[in-house]
Amino acid sequence: MLPETLANNPNTNARCRPVLGWLALSFTLLAGCSDDAFKSHRLAAQGLYTGALSADGKFALIGSMNHGSSLWQTADFERIYNWNHSPNGFTDLTTSAFAPDGSKAVTAQARDLVVWDTQTGKDLAYWGSPGSLLSVALASSGRQLLLGMQDHSAVLIDPTSGHHLRTLMHEAPVGAVALGLDGKHALTGSDDETAVLWELATGTALRTLKHDNSVRVVAMSATGRYLFTAAQARQAVLWDGTTGEAIHEIEDKNPGILSATFSADENLLLLGYVNREVTLWSTQSKRLLGSWHIGAENPLHTQGGAVLAVGYTQDPGVFLAITGDGRLSELRSSPTQ
Protein backbone atom coordinates (compact mmCIF):
# COMPACT_ATOMS: atom_id res chain seq x y z
CA MET A 1 0.00 0.00 0.00
CA LEU A 2 1.33 3.45 -0.92
CA PRO A 3 2.07 5.96 1.84
CA GLU A 4 -0.39 8.81 2.20
CA THR A 5 2.22 11.31 1.03
CA LEU A 6 2.99 9.49 -2.23
CA ALA A 7 1.00 8.25 -5.16
CA ASN A 8 2.16 6.76 -8.45
CA ASN A 9 1.41 9.03 -11.41
CA PRO A 10 0.73 6.85 -14.46
CA ASN A 11 0.16 9.79 -16.79
CA THR A 12 3.59 11.36 -16.62
CA ASN A 13 6.90 9.68 -17.37
CA ALA A 14 10.34 10.99 -16.66
CA ARG A 15 12.54 11.54 -19.66
CA CYS A 16 16.29 11.25 -20.14
CA ARG A 17 18.14 12.25 -23.30
CA PRO A 18 21.79 11.28 -23.70
CA VAL A 19 24.14 14.00 -24.86
CA LEU A 20 27.34 12.74 -26.42
CA GLY A 21 30.46 14.55 -27.41
CA TRP A 22 29.53 17.91 -25.83
CA LEU A 23 32.19 19.42 -23.58
CA ALA A 24 31.65 22.28 -21.21
CA LEU A 25 33.66 25.44 -21.55
CA SER A 26 36.48 25.57 -19.00
CA PHE A 27 37.67 28.58 -17.11
CA THR A 28 40.82 28.68 -15.02
CA LEU A 29 40.52 31.13 -12.13
CA LEU A 30 42.89 32.34 -9.45
CA ALA A 31 42.38 31.33 -5.82
CA GLY A 32 44.54 31.04 -2.74
CA CYS A 33 48.28 31.21 -3.30
CA SER A 34 48.70 29.65 -6.77
CA ASP A 35 47.16 29.63 -10.23
CA ASP A 36 46.36 25.94 -9.77
CA ALA A 37 44.35 26.36 -6.57
CA PHE A 38 41.23 25.65 -8.53
CA LYS A 39 39.78 25.31 -12.00
CA SER A 40 36.17 26.07 -12.78
CA HIS A 41 34.03 24.42 -15.47
CA ARG A 42 30.69 25.81 -16.62
CA LEU A 43 27.82 23.30 -16.53
CA ALA A 44 24.92 25.71 -17.03
CA ALA A 45 24.56 29.01 -18.87
CA GLN A 46 22.53 30.54 -16.04
CA GLY A 47 22.12 29.68 -12.38
CA LEU A 48 21.19 26.47 -10.58
CA TYR A 49 18.35 25.48 -8.28
CA THR A 50 20.18 22.43 -6.91
CA GLY A 51 23.34 20.39 -7.29
CA ALA A 52 24.70 17.05 -6.05
CA LEU A 53 27.97 15.10 -6.30
CA SER A 54 28.41 11.34 -6.11
CA ALA A 55 30.49 10.06 -3.18
CA ASP A 56 33.37 9.04 -5.48
CA GLY A 57 33.29 12.34 -7.35
CA LYS A 58 32.62 10.73 -10.73
CA PHE A 59 29.21 12.32 -11.30
CA ALA A 60 27.72 15.78 -10.90
CA LEU A 61 23.95 16.33 -11.02
CA ILE A 62 22.53 19.80 -11.56
CA GLY A 63 19.09 21.39 -11.81
CA SER A 64 19.49 24.51 -13.92
CA MET A 65 17.17 27.50 -14.13
CA ASN A 66 16.56 27.36 -17.87
CA HIS A 67 17.41 23.87 -19.12
CA GLY A 68 16.19 21.37 -16.54
CA SER A 69 18.40 18.79 -14.90
CA SER A 70 21.41 16.94 -16.29
CA LEU A 71 24.02 14.36 -15.28
CA TRP A 72 27.69 15.03 -15.91
CA GLN A 73 30.92 13.01 -15.80
CA THR A 74 33.48 15.00 -13.88
CA ALA A 75 36.51 13.28 -15.42
CA ASP A 76 36.00 15.06 -18.75
CA PHE A 77 33.21 17.49 -17.80
CA GLU A 78 30.88 15.88 -20.30
CA ARG A 79 27.11 16.03 -20.01
CA ILE A 80 25.83 12.49 -20.55
CA TYR A 81 22.10 12.71 -19.82
CA ASN A 82 19.39 15.34 -19.69
CA TRP A 83 16.86 14.36 -17.02
CA ASN A 84 13.39 15.90 -16.87
CA HIS A 85 10.19 14.75 -15.20
CA SER A 86 7.99 15.21 -18.26
CA PRO A 87 8.66 14.76 -22.00
CA ASN A 88 7.44 18.22 -22.97
CA GLY A 89 9.46 20.63 -20.89
CA PHE A 90 12.29 21.34 -18.51
CA THR A 91 12.04 20.47 -14.82
CA ASP A 92 12.72 23.05 -12.11
CA LEU A 93 14.22 20.93 -9.35
CA THR A 94 14.05 21.72 -5.65
CA THR A 95 16.50 19.04 -4.45
CA SER A 96 18.57 16.07 -5.66
CA ALA A 97 20.87 13.34 -4.31
CA PHE A 98 22.96 10.29 -5.22
CA ALA A 99 22.97 6.85 -3.65
CA PRO A 100 26.29 6.33 -1.80
CA ASP A 101 27.52 3.87 -4.45
CA GLY A 102 26.65 6.28 -7.27
CA SER A 103 24.48 3.75 -9.10
CA LYS A 104 21.24 5.69 -8.62
CA ALA A 105 20.20 9.30 -8.25
CA VAL A 106 16.98 11.07 -7.32
CA THR A 107 15.64 14.38 -8.58
CA ALA A 108 12.67 16.12 -6.99
CA GLN A 109 10.27 18.98 -7.61
CA ALA A 110 7.93 20.22 -4.92
CA ARG A 111 5.29 17.64 -5.86
CA ASP A 112 7.05 14.74 -7.58
CA LEU A 113 10.31 12.84 -7.76
CA VAL A 114 12.16 10.47 -10.07
CA VAL A 115 14.77 7.79 -9.32
CA TRP A 116 17.33 7.32 -12.12
CA ASP A 117 19.94 4.76 -13.14
CA THR A 118 23.21 6.66 -13.60
CA GLN A 119 24.67 4.01 -15.93
CA THR A 120 21.81 3.78 -18.42
CA GLY A 121 20.16 7.13 -17.77
CA LYS A 122 16.77 5.45 -17.51
CA ASP A 123 14.07 6.50 -15.07
CA LEU A 124 13.36 3.66 -12.62
CA ALA A 125 10.48 5.11 -10.61
CA TYR A 126 8.23 8.15 -10.71
CA TRP A 127 6.17 9.26 -7.74
CA GLY A 128 3.83 12.18 -7.18
CA SER A 129 3.29 13.78 -3.78
CA PRO A 130 0.34 15.77 -2.37
CA GLY A 131 2.79 17.44 0.05
CA SER A 132 5.80 19.65 -0.64
CA LEU A 133 9.18 17.87 -0.82
CA LEU A 134 12.07 19.81 0.73
CA SER A 135 14.94 17.31 0.87
CA VAL A 136 15.84 13.78 -0.26
CA ALA A 137 18.37 11.06 0.58
CA LEU A 138 18.92 7.77 -1.23
CA ALA A 139 20.42 4.65 0.37
CA SER A 140 23.02 2.38 -1.21
CA SER A 141 21.84 0.85 -4.49
CA GLY A 142 18.68 2.92 -4.15
CA ARG A 143 16.96 0.48 -1.79
CA GLN A 144 15.52 3.17 0.48
CA LEU A 145 14.46 6.75 -0.13
CA LEU A 146 14.02 9.30 2.66
CA LEU A 147 11.94 12.41 2.00
CA GLY A 148 11.97 15.58 4.08
CA MET A 149 8.52 17.16 3.91
CA GLN A 150 6.89 20.52 4.50
CA ASP A 151 4.23 18.78 6.63
CA HIS A 152 6.79 18.15 9.45
CA SER A 153 7.46 14.53 8.49
CA ALA A 154 10.35 12.53 7.07
CA VAL A 155 8.97 9.60 5.07
CA LEU A 156 11.00 6.46 4.33
CA ILE A 157 9.84 4.44 1.31
CA ASP A 158 10.93 1.65 -0.98
CA PRO A 159 11.40 3.64 -4.20
CA THR A 160 10.75 0.62 -6.42
CA SER A 161 7.37 -0.37 -5.03
CA GLY A 162 6.43 2.83 -3.20
CA HIS A 163 5.87 0.75 -0.07
CA HIS A 164 5.76 2.93 3.04
CA LEU A 165 8.46 1.86 5.49
CA ARG A 166 8.45 4.52 8.21
CA THR A 167 7.29 8.05 9.07
CA LEU A 168 9.46 10.16 11.37
CA MET A 169 7.85 13.26 12.87
CA HIS A 170 9.22 16.68 13.78
CA GLU A 171 7.32 19.74 14.98
CA ALA A 172 8.16 21.82 11.90
CA PRO A 173 9.18 21.29 8.23
CA VAL A 174 12.06 18.88 7.61
CA GLY A 175 14.55 20.63 5.37
CA ALA A 176 17.52 18.24 5.63
CA VAL A 177 17.82 14.43 5.63
CA ALA A 178 20.62 11.84 5.53
CA LEU A 179 20.72 8.04 5.56
CA GLY A 180 23.40 5.84 7.14
CA LEU A 181 25.33 3.42 4.95
CA ASP A 182 24.14 0.55 7.13
CA GLY A 183 20.52 1.31 6.23
CA LYS A 184 19.65 1.27 9.93
CA HIS A 185 19.83 4.95 10.83
CA ALA A 186 18.71 8.33 9.55
CA LEU A 187 19.50 11.91 10.49
CA THR A 188 16.92 14.65 9.99
CA GLY A 189 17.09 18.42 10.43
CA SER A 190 14.05 20.59 11.01
CA ASP A 191 12.81 24.15 11.40
CA ASP A 192 11.91 23.14 14.97
CA GLU A 193 15.62 23.84 15.72
CA THR A 194 16.56 20.20 16.23
CA ALA A 195 18.32 17.41 14.38
CA VAL A 196 17.32 13.86 15.29
CA LEU A 197 19.21 10.58 14.87
CA TRP A 198 16.66 7.80 14.26
CA GLU A 199 16.67 4.02 14.43
CA LEU A 200 14.77 3.13 11.28
CA ALA A 201 13.66 -0.37 12.32
CA THR A 202 11.57 1.00 15.17
CA GLY A 203 11.25 4.70 14.40
CA THR A 204 12.89 5.49 17.74
CA ALA A 205 14.61 8.85 18.22
CA LEU A 206 18.05 7.87 19.55
CA ARG A 207 19.51 11.36 19.86
CA THR A 208 18.00 14.84 19.69
CA LEU A 209 20.59 17.49 18.83
CA LYS A 210 19.43 20.97 19.77
CA HIS A 211 20.27 24.19 17.95
CA ASP A 212 19.36 27.87 18.14
CA ASN A 213 17.81 28.14 14.67
CA SER A 214 16.34 26.02 11.86
CA VAL A 215 18.60 23.05 11.03
CA ARG A 216 19.17 23.15 7.26
CA VAL A 217 22.22 20.89 6.77
CA VAL A 218 22.89 17.37 8.12
CA ALA A 219 25.53 14.74 7.29
CA MET A 220 26.52 11.29 8.58
CA SER A 221 29.95 9.69 8.26
CA ALA A 222 30.30 6.21 6.76
CA THR A 223 30.00 4.19 9.98
CA GLY A 224 27.95 6.77 11.85
CA ARG A 225 30.92 7.61 14.05
CA TYR A 226 30.40 11.30 13.33
CA LEU A 227 27.36 13.48 12.68
CA PHE A 228 27.33 17.04 11.42
CA THR A 229 24.52 19.57 11.69
CA ALA A 230 24.28 23.24 10.80
CA ALA A 231 21.61 25.73 11.75
CA GLN A 232 20.60 28.50 9.39
CA ALA A 233 23.29 31.21 9.36
CA ARG A 234 24.51 30.21 12.82
CA GLN A 235 25.58 27.15 14.80
CA ALA A 236 27.54 24.32 13.12
CA VAL A 237 28.48 21.28 15.22
CA LEU A 238 30.45 18.05 14.83
CA TRP A 239 28.88 15.35 17.05
CA ASP A 240 29.84 11.93 18.36
CA GLY A 241 27.37 9.63 16.61
CA THR A 242 27.42 7.07 19.41
CA THR A 243 26.97 9.29 22.44
CA GLY A 244 25.33 12.35 20.91
CA GLU A 245 27.94 14.56 22.59
CA ALA A 246 29.12 17.70 20.81
CA ILE A 247 32.76 17.20 19.79
CA HIS A 248 33.47 20.54 18.19
CA GLU A 249 31.52 23.67 17.33
CA ILE A 250 32.81 25.23 14.15
CA GLU A 251 33.26 28.94 14.67
CA ASP A 252 34.03 31.17 11.70
CA LYS A 253 32.88 34.39 10.13
CA ASN A 254 31.10 32.82 7.16
CA PRO A 255 27.39 33.66 7.10
CA GLY A 256 25.95 30.20 6.55
CA ILE A 257 26.64 26.59 5.54
CA LEU A 258 24.67 25.08 2.65
CA SER A 259 26.44 21.75 2.06
CA ALA A 260 28.53 19.22 3.99
CA THR A 261 30.00 15.78 3.46
CA PHE A 262 32.44 13.45 5.23
CA SER A 263 35.26 11.59 3.47
CA ALA A 264 34.93 7.82 3.08
CA ASP A 265 37.54 7.23 5.81
CA GLU A 266 35.70 9.65 8.15
CA ASN A 267 38.84 11.74 8.68
CA LEU A 268 37.71 14.82 6.73
CA LEU A 269 34.70 17.11 6.71
CA LEU A 270 34.12 19.36 3.70
CA LEU A 271 31.78 22.36 4.03
CA GLY A 272 30.29 24.75 1.46
CA TYR A 273 28.94 28.21 2.31
CA VAL A 274 26.52 30.76 0.88
CA ASN A 275 29.36 33.19 0.06
CA ARG A 276 31.48 31.08 -2.34
CA GLU A 277 33.63 29.70 0.48
CA VAL A 278 34.66 26.05 0.97
CA THR A 279 36.49 24.78 4.04
CA LEU A 280 38.13 21.46 4.88
CA TRP A 281 38.32 20.20 8.49
CA SER A 282 39.99 17.31 10.28
CA THR A 283 37.58 15.26 12.38
CA GLN A 284 40.55 14.00 14.39
CA SER A 285 42.33 17.22 15.33
CA LYS A 286 39.28 19.50 14.77
CA ARG A 287 41.64 21.81 12.84
CA LEU A 288 40.95 23.75 9.68
CA LEU A 289 43.07 22.13 6.96
CA GLY A 290 42.26 24.34 4.01
CA SER A 291 39.91 26.91 2.55
CA TRP A 292 39.03 28.25 -0.87
CA HIS A 293 37.10 31.22 -2.23
CA ILE A 294 35.50 30.51 -5.61
CA GLY A 295 35.65 33.90 -7.30
CA ALA A 296 33.01 35.19 -9.70
CA GLU A 297 33.80 35.02 -13.41
CA ASN A 298 32.60 38.59 -13.83
CA PRO A 299 33.46 40.85 -10.86
CA LEU A 300 30.47 43.05 -11.78
CA HIS A 301 28.07 40.12 -11.35
CA THR A 302 28.96 38.36 -8.12
CA GLN A 303 25.62 36.79 -7.15
CA GLY A 304 24.78 33.10 -7.49
CA GLY A 305 27.94 31.82 -5.84
CA ALA A 306 26.36 29.80 -3.03
CA VAL A 307 28.07 26.39 -2.73
CA LEU A 308 25.25 23.91 -3.33
CA ALA A 309 27.34 20.72 -3.09
CA VAL A 310 30.85 19.66 -2.08
CA GLY A 311 32.61 16.36 -2.64
CA TYR A 312 35.76 14.27 -2.88
CA THR A 313 37.63 12.70 -5.78
CA GLN A 314 39.92 9.70 -6.12
CA ASP A 315 42.83 12.11 -5.73
CA PRO A 316 43.27 12.96 -2.00
CA GLY A 317 44.39 16.48 -2.91
CA VAL A 318 41.46 17.36 -5.17
CA PHE A 319 37.95 18.30 -4.03
CA LEU A 320 34.83 19.42 -5.88
CA ALA A 321 32.23 22.13 -5.42
CA ILE A 322 29.09 23.08 -7.35
CA THR A 323 28.10 26.74 -7.12
CA GLY A 324 24.77 28.35 -7.82
CA ASP A 325 26.12 30.30 -10.78
CA GLY A 326 26.29 27.04 -12.76
CA ARG A 327 29.90 25.99 -12.29
CA LEU A 328 31.74 22.89 -11.07
CA SER A 329 35.09 23.74 -9.48
CA GLU A 330 38.12 21.54 -8.77
CA LEU A 331 39.75 22.61 -5.50
CA ARG A 332 43.37 21.62 -5.05
CA SER A 333 45.46 21.32 -1.91
CA SER A 334 47.72 18.94 -0.02
CA PRO A 335 46.17 18.74 3.44
CA THR A 336 48.01 17.10 6.30
CA GLN A 337 46.08 15.91 9.35
Please name the defining characteristics of this protein:
337 residues; single chain; Methylamine Dehydrogenase, Chain H; 5-stranded antiparallel β-sheet; mainly beta
Q: Mean of residue pLDDT? A: 86
Q: Could you say what the CATH topology is called?
A: Methylamine Dehydrogenase, Chain H
Helical element count? 0
Number of folding domains?
1
Portion of residues in helices? under 10%
Major sheet summary line: 5 strands, antiparallel
What spatial order of strands do you see in the largest sheet?
1-12-11-10-9
The coarse silhouette is globular
Our estimate of the beta-strand percent is over 45%
CATH homologous superfamily label:
YVTN repeat-like/Quinoprotein amine dehydrogenase
**Which CATH first-tier class would you pick?**
Mainly Beta
Count the E strands.
31
The radius of gyration is 19 Å
Low-confidence stretches: 1-36
SS content category = mainly beta
- The CATH architecture: 7 Propeller
The span between the termini is 50 Å
